[in-house]
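Final report, Chapter 2: Outcomes

The project's central promise was a pipeline that accepts a single protein chain and returns its three-dimensional structure in a standardized token representation, suitable for archiving and comparison. That pipeline is now operational. To close this chapter, we reproduce one record exactly as it appears in the project archive, with the input sequence first and the structure output second.
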Amino acid sequence: MLHILALTVRNSVRNPLRTTLTVTGIAIGVIAFSFLQTVLAAYYFGLDASSPKRLVARHRVSLFNLLPLAQAAKMREVPGVTQVSYGIWFGGYYRDPTQFFGQIAVDPQYLDLYPEFVLPPDQKQAYLAEQQACIVGRKLANRFDWKVGDKITITGQIFPGDWDFIIRGIYHGNQPNTDETSMFFHWKRLDEWLLAREQGSQVGWYLLGVDDPSQNSRITAAVDDLFFNSTAPTLTETEKEFNASFVSMFGSVLTTIKIASGIVIVIILLIMANTMMMAARERITEYGVLKTLGFRGFHLATLIGGEALVVTFLGAVLGCAASYGIVAMFGKAIEMNLGQMFPVFELKPSTVALSVGMALAAGLVACLAPIARSVRLPIAQALRRVE
């Protein structure tokens, strides 16, 4: 068996140019596959930050339809609901429309439902005491080099005008998947803007704290039944389901990424199939000689399959090594600018294992045809073959 292994390795580098080109092609394919899988993993990783003790009630028609503040009192009466808070998406920008990040107007109790948001007590008190105050995530503050006490101006798009804020706190997450790229400010300030335009007190969604997640189904049904026949019916769901609804908004993009990942695997398969067919065709006579010496089909299959695995493994290792550098290069920028969707953008060991496994699987599939052809070829015909 050692002789078989030695011959397998020697065959893998017999044609240095072809082996180099094949390894390079596989490496490029693995880089593309790893990056696409990292995008998918990072997107779904954010869903894990959701807590089963938080429910979200939004307008049944659309998240862009607002709900009346009067609904809060009735929600507090639902058995199992321990706390009711609310927020509304502001939809503005800082200095430039391309400087996108989340700005959310919330009531004072909103942050109490997010223990994963860690804010120093003195900063929290300063934020609560001042209506013009806001708090920002650590990554967002680093992105714009903001400090506590800085004055910033957000230009509203949904709620037009220039809105001035004073940063009174910078929070950080106690979990790797906690979003640190958002800005929170007082809902009361936005409410005054709405009342001045006779639009009434409204919220974008309600955040409900529950004491027993096993009762979530009953609680969601009870809340929705309260407003089923009203002008503002609600759709209440767990926070994870609520966040997953955003995934469905990007369903076509995610589907495209998955299809592209499959195409990359097919490309690797074709690259290896071409290489192994050429190698097997060149060695037909050698395989005939080996058969006359007593080598069986199993040995030939080991030689050809082993060569395919060696080449694909080299390509996969090279591709994964390059992927670490590429993901690290773009990861910080993606987390900083798109942290709400990709709170953690890094190449995970599971993604590396998947990339290597898919490359090796493609290599094995690619060598099936050469193996079948070489094993079935009669010795006399193989020895007569001259390339």
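Archive annotation: Residues 297-337 form the longest helix (41 residues).
This record, like all others produced under the grant, will remain available to the consortium after the project formally closes.
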